[in-house]
Write a structure and sequence with these properties.
Layout (H helix, E strand, L loop, with lengths): L11 H9 L2 H7 L10 H6 L7 H44 L7
Organism: candidate division MSBL1 archaeon SCGC-AAA833K04
Keywords: DNA-binding, Restriction system
Family: Belongs to the type-I restriction system S methylase family.
């Protein structure tokens, strides 16, 4: 595990998002049989684009908003999944207790 320090002209959140989308690079350079790891050299060789600070801030703001929306959608999906798992049990319970039969 390593800590990454950024220079003054690189927003840490911008770097974080950039590193998250580098799957193709990480899969190409990572090594190890028990668990995959990357080296300090791998990190140094990665070319990180450094747009002007204002552009980095705008990009981070947009990605934060998108991430929030995705997280909200995921939370909604998990709640619906929980309901769908409980619902059949509740219906069967009512069926076997006679509550589903109309009078």
């Amino acid at each position: 595990m390593a800590a990454l320090r950024t220079k003054n002209d690189l927003n840490q959140d911008f770097l974080h998002y950039f590193l998250l989308i580098q799957d193709h690079y990480w899969s190409r350079v990572s090594s190890g049989s028990t668990y995959k790891s990357i080296t300090k050299t791998n990190l140094k060789n990665l070319k990180v684009p450094v747009p002007p600070p204002k552009e980095q801030e705008k990009t981070v703001e947009k990605l934060d908003k998108i991430r929030e929306k995705v997280n909200n959608m995921w939370d909604g999906f998990k709640r619906r999944k929980e309901i769908l798992e409980i619902l059949p049990k509740a219906v069967l319970d009512k069926a076997f207790t006679g509550e589903l039969v109309e009078a």
